[in-house]
Amino acid sequence: MALMGAAMELQEMSMGTAFAVGAPAVALGGLCLFLINGYVIEQRRRRSPLPPLPEVPGLPVIGNLLQLKEKKPHMTFARWAKTYGPIYSIKTGSNTIVVLNNNDVAKEAMVTRFSSISTRKLTKALSILTFNKCMVATSDYDDFHKTVKRHILTSVLGPNAQKRHRCHRDTLIANIVKDFHAHVKDYGLQPVNFRNIFESELFGLAMKEAIGSDVESIYMEELGKLSRHEIFTVLVKDPMEGAIDVDWRDFFPYLKWIPNRTFEMKIEKMDFRRQAVMKALIMEQRKRVASGEEKNSYFDYLLTEGKSLTEKQIAMLLWEVIIETSDTTLVTSEWAMYELAKNPKMQDRLYQEIHGVCGSDKITEEKLCQLPFLSAVFHETLRKYSPAPVIPLRFAHEDTELGGYFVPAGSEIVINIYGCNMDENQWETPKEWNPERFLDKKYDQNDMHKTMAFGGGRRMCAGSLQAMLIACTSIGRLVQEFEWRLKDGEEEDVDIVGLTTQKLHPMHAIIRLRN
Ligand code: HEM
């Protein structure tokens, strides 16, 4: 979700195009419909006994768009919560957005009022990139969603599936550790780029889960031969950037007939390249299956269990595993290692905990339940640097209420996880990274889920188990083997970027072998 840049685009947009096609009447017609709609909503609200939502004042027509110019809307929303309270409404063009900034109203939206707020609202860019909601994470809560969620849980992300994919996670950890050892051997105390190593291994795991094997390169008629790195760019990096691209027409649906070719061509090109790569990868796997070779992969599973799915739907569902596996777990692990490298006391506490439980054995997934401080490190990192600071937009498809206020049908709902996790009524000194906050009083595993970083209710993240297993085992093993310290000047370098709060600049740390 990104409203950023919208204001800039608004200033730059050429209304000349619209008028050149001689269609002011259409615009006027659209505007009239919009005003009538506003009038009807106001009448419904007056009939409701509930009060209207507090509103953040904005400008006529564009509403609050100009106030969202900075690229971190979740931070602006949290700031507004201090003035307007935990729930308020804003206007982005002709859209009404209800913003929720504390745990009570967030839970009410995700659980109690779920039946009225279960659909997703996608931007134009996301509609193209998700092939019109053809993914578990972006579909509406309908039969398609239930079927494909069952598929992804049974084949990839549920507890039994995760047991079957254990060997890939063990290989990932072994490769990461080997790469860091090689760095120490070859470059000694020169800083290491954590992200380079971790990102590449996670992508390998994603490919194995999705199609059964990692790739080195691939050839296709449309794009020629692509290296592994180029495949990563086409499948993960570009779409992550495209997902936050803004089409100003998203804010003015009554003007959607005006062409915006630059935007459309950019996203369509991204989609074309992604589809071409997925098609080529699938073709290779079809040949493998035809030769009688079976693999434990989502592709093999969908071939037998997803017979009603089209070729394009299968490609989208496989791509979903690739993109979701490759990004959020990296974001969390990198921030956790950054904080541990910055806090020698916390790093030492973690090392001592692991040493006490594992002795000289390497940490494994079986040991995680005996390591509460490691779990606290993971959840505190999710709290402070939630990879999804705002839950993908929900949409109220009928009139409902939240926090005691009237919420009209057609409102978009922003659940600001960042705002909830920075709420001073819920968290003491929320800006501080302090895993001990989870262990202060009587240790309770449920407290960890107070961060809501994985969402909640029926649309809760399907990949939370995998994310926890990979992040905790990697963080634990890297602290067990190496002592971490930030490169000089690294401490101040904490800005974020993108859809999933990635660290703006990759972390560079100096690592030393323990023992
Ligand atoms: C630290 C890592 C992760 C975080 C913080 C995270 C967070 C989230 C959030 C906030 C949602 C939206 C929940 C909602 O709408 O209420 C979500 C949904 C989802 N996530 Fe994750 N996620 C992570 C890792 C993963 C991984 C590794 C996968 C694996 C492929 C994954 C797959 C999904 C799916 C399929 C959904 C859609 C669930 C549904 O709509 O029913 N996630 N995630």
TrEMBL record:
<dbReference type="GO" id="GO:0005783">
    <property type="term" value="C:endoplasmic reticulum"/>
</dbReference>
<dbReference type="GO" id="GO:0009686">
    <property type="term" value="P:gibberellin biosynthetic process"/>
</dbReference>
<keyword id="KW-0560">Oxidoreductase</keyword>
<keyword id="KW-0934">Plastid</keyword>
<keyword id="KW-0479">Metal-binding</keyword>
<dbReference type="InterPro" id="IPR002401">
    <property type="entry name" value="Cyt_P450_E_grp-I"/>
</dbReference>
<dbReference type="GO" id="GO:0052615">
    <property type="term" value="F:ent-kaurene oxidase activity"/>
</dbReference>
<dbReference type="GO" id="GO:0005506">
    <property type="term" value="F:iron ion binding"/>
</dbReference>
<dbReference type="InterPro" id="IPR017972">
    <property type="entry name" value="Cyt_P450_CS"/>
</dbReference>
<feature type="binding site" description="axial binding residue">
    <location>
        <position position="461"/>
    </location>
    <ligand>
        <name>heme</name>
    </ligand>
</feature>
<dbReference type="Pfam" id="PF00067">
    <property type="entry name" value="p450"/>
</dbReference>
<keyword id="KW-1002">Plastid outer membrane</keyword>
<dbReference type="GO" id="GO:0020037">
    <property type="term" value="F:heme binding"/>
</dbReference>
<dbReference type="InterPro" id="IPR036396">
    <property type="entry name" value="Cyt_P450_sf"/>
</dbReference>
<keyword id="KW-1133">Transmembrane helix</keyword>
<comment type="function">
    <text>Catalyzes three successive oxidations of the 4-methyl group of ent-kaurene giving kaurenoic acid, a key step in gibberellins (GAs) biosynthesis. GAs, which are involved many processes, including stem elongation, play a central role in plant development.</text>
</comment>
<dbReference type="InterPro" id="IPR001128">
    <property type="entry name" value="Cyt_P450"/>
</dbReference>
<comment type="similarity">
    <text>Belongs to the cytochrome P450 family.</text>
</comment>
<keyword id="KW-0812">Transmembrane</keyword>
<dbReference type="InterPro" id="IPR044225">
    <property type="entry name" value="KO_chloroplastic"/>
</dbReference>
<keyword id="KW-0472">Membrane</keyword>
<keyword id="KW-0408">Iron</keyword>
<dbReference type="GO" id="GO:0016709">
    <property type="term" value="F:oxidoreductase activity, acting on paired donors, with incorporation or reduction of molecular oxygen, NAD(P)H as one donor, and incorporation of one atom of oxygen"/>
</dbReference>
<dbReference type="GO" id="GO:0009707">
    <property type="term" value="C:chloroplast outer membrane"/>
</dbReference>
<keyword id="KW-0349">Heme</keyword>
<protein>
    <recommendedName>
        <fullName>ent-kaurene monooxygenase</fullName>
        <ecNumber>1.14.14.86</ecNumber>
    </recommendedName>
</protein>
<dbReference type="GO" id="GO:0010241">
    <property type="term" value="P:ent-kaurene oxidation to kaurenoic acid"/>
</dbReference>
<keyword id="KW-0503">Monooxygenase</keyword>
<feature type="transmembrane region" description="Helical">
    <location>
        <begin position="20"/>
        <end position="41"/>
    </location>
</feature>
